[in-house]
Amino acid sequence: MPTADPSRVFVPPRWFVRLAWRVHRRIYAGSGGRRGLRRARPGREGYLCLVSTGRRSGQERRVLLAYLEDGPDLVTLAMNGWSEGEPAWWLNLLATPDAVVELVDGARPVRAHAATGAERERLWARWRELDEKLDDYAARRPGETAVVVLAPRADTDG
């Protein structure tokens, strides 16, 4: 595997990334959830809405995320737009791992965990299949990017 080179990739300015996600959230909210989500398919990520509990406020928090399916699990990256620091949604899940994901075909309760070891390597390789420059993007961050697994929960109280 070649060494990651962060200078090989262009990352839009932080304000642009935040604006794009804000517009995406408004499309989702404004359509009552009918637009803005998409099912993951081979060779293409999907989009889900993660509903978690704020670690400080205790309030419900919503964020739209790209994901892949891995059997019954949903997998996303805690990348914060490839900027420094962890995204707030991941910090919220670290504090309270039980959450709900809204998908095109409905909502499901999940429990989050960070993939480690062989599981992380396998899932990172799946993301790399979608973006050959993934390692270059990740090299822009000071630490390892968490691969977050959203596993189904048996309970339905969300």
Secondary-structure element pattern, one letter each: HEEEHEEHHE
Cα-based radius of gyration, to the nearest Å: 15 Å
Query: Into which percent range does the helicity of residues fall?
Result: 25-40%
The main sheet orders its strands as 1-2-3-6-5-4
Beta-strand proportion: 25-35%
Which descriptors apply to this entry?
158 residues, alpha+beta, six-stranded antiparallel β-barrel, 4 helices
Concise overview:
The protein is α+β, with helices and mostly antiparallel strands and 158 residues long.
Textual characterization of the structure:
- This protein has 158 residues and is α+β, with helices and mostly antiparallel strands.
- Helix content is 28%, strand content 30%.
- It has a 6-stranded antiparallel β-barrel.
- Strand 4 (98-103) and strand 5 (106-114) form a beta hairpin.
- The longest helix is centred in the first third of the chain and has 17 residues, at 14-30.
- It is globular and about 40 Å long.
Topology:
Blueprint: H1 14-30, E1 46-53, E2 60-70, E3 73-78, H2 88-95, E4 98-103, E5 106-114, H3 117-130, H4 134-138, E6 146-152
Antiparallel strand pairs: 1-2, 1-4, 2-3, 3-6, 4-5, 5-6
